[in-house]
Amino acid sequence: MDSPWDEGHDTTTAFEDLREAEWTKMSEEFTNTGYREGITAGKEASVQEGFNTGFADVGAPLGRDLGLIRGKSSALLSFLLSATSTVLGVSDEEKETLVAEAREIASQLGNIRYSDIEPRDLEAEQHAREHLEAEGQAMEVNEDLEQKKQLESVEDMLSRMSAGENVEGPGRPTMEDVLRLRVRLQALSLHLGFRIDLC
Amino acid sequence: MIGDFDLEALVDLEQTFYETGYEDGFAHGRIHGLIEGRALGRAKGFEMWEELGFYEGFALMWLPIYEKQGRGDDRTMNHTQRLLELIAQFPRINPSETDETDIPKLFRQIRSRYKALCSTLGARPSLRYSDRSQDRDETADATVADAAPDVRPTEKNVWKVEKGSGAAPRAVNGHSFDF
């Protein structure tokens, strides 16, 4: 039986569909705006906390460790350069060997960059992976830090070019190289009769 | 009447959606802020303490040398001990979080004490802050590569994030600690 409401029923459905669409649009719009502003606020509220943590837990102790052995190697080299072989109680040749070793240690330590020995930030890596999976794009990193990395890779390229190498060199030093240099420095100081605490 | 009611409900709804989004966004933004802050703080802490550690290591190494060699007079011993004392005063945490210490002054004192120690020893100072113009020492810069190859100091502030407070960031030789 024809219902006089049939037509009206269709209209109602269409109206509800429209309302549903409007509802979704409105909710998404406001949720997204809130999300965007929330991200900015959340970031601003926590960046100082992150900075202080990174400074105290990683940056300062790591920098001090490297600085200490660099300073010690520099002092040892200065001493060897200023001392005569008589004072050292060694032959001239042996003194040259000692100076060369001290110079080599200081030079290799001087070549180490923060980025060579920086420990991994596992939480940051994990979050970056989540972004990659969710959006198919990498998480944006701080512009200045990114710039520094690029600058370093240009430096590496230039140093390879000036060394006349077309292939990759031995690569950047690692924390293990730092530890090896520390041992060499300790051996050299002990050889000279200086007991130093190489923490 | 009905129109008024609907409008109010709608505004409430909009607010609810906004707040839900804001909370989720805030949580996500917090993760990003912590990650970025950590990266910047690590780099800054490393830069500052690498320099201070260098001076400390330099002074520490000379102590057993004096002992064994009988080198150095009272003046060098005094410089060494004073340098170590000054470095011991330097905070190991973000210095902008410590109010009582005059960081720029302490940094200047440490650097000049290190240079004084070098000159009494006849050693070439390795200036680890050569891009900071007011302390620039051309002669020393030129000899750095020979004495102890230096890390290249960073070109500019990497941790500076403008804050709405309008407070001027404190600076140590052009470097701010408030990021």
Automatic annotation (TrEMBL), chain A:
Q: Does the keyword Nucleus apply?
A: yes
Q: Which residues cross the membrane?
A: none
* Start and end residues of each Essential protein Yae1 N-terminal domain: 34-72
The primary site where this protein sits is cytoplasm
Location in the cell reads: Cytoplasm; Nucleus
GO CC, sorted alphabetically, is: cytoplasm; nucleus
Annotated keywords? Cytoplasm, Nucleus
Question: What InterPro entries does the entry give?
Answer: Essential_protein_Yae1_N (IPR019191), Yae1-like (IPR038881)
Q: Does the keyword Cytoplasm apply?
A: yes
**Organism's domain of life?**
Eukaryota
The UniProt entry's sequence similarity note says: Belongs to the YAE1 family.
Give the protein name, as stated in the record.
Protein YAE1
From TrEMBL, chain B:
The domain of life is Eukaryota
Region annotation (Disordered) ranges: 128-156
Which ranges carry the Essential protein Yae1 N-terminal domain? Answer: 21-59
Give me the stretches of Basic and acidic residues compositional bias. Answer: 129-139
Compositional bias ranges of the Low complexity kind: 141-151
Q: Which Pfam families match?
A: Yae1_N
- Homology family: Belongs to the LTO1 family.
Protein name as annotated: Essential protein Yae1 N-terminal domain-containing protein
Q: Which organism is it from?
A: Asterophora parasitica
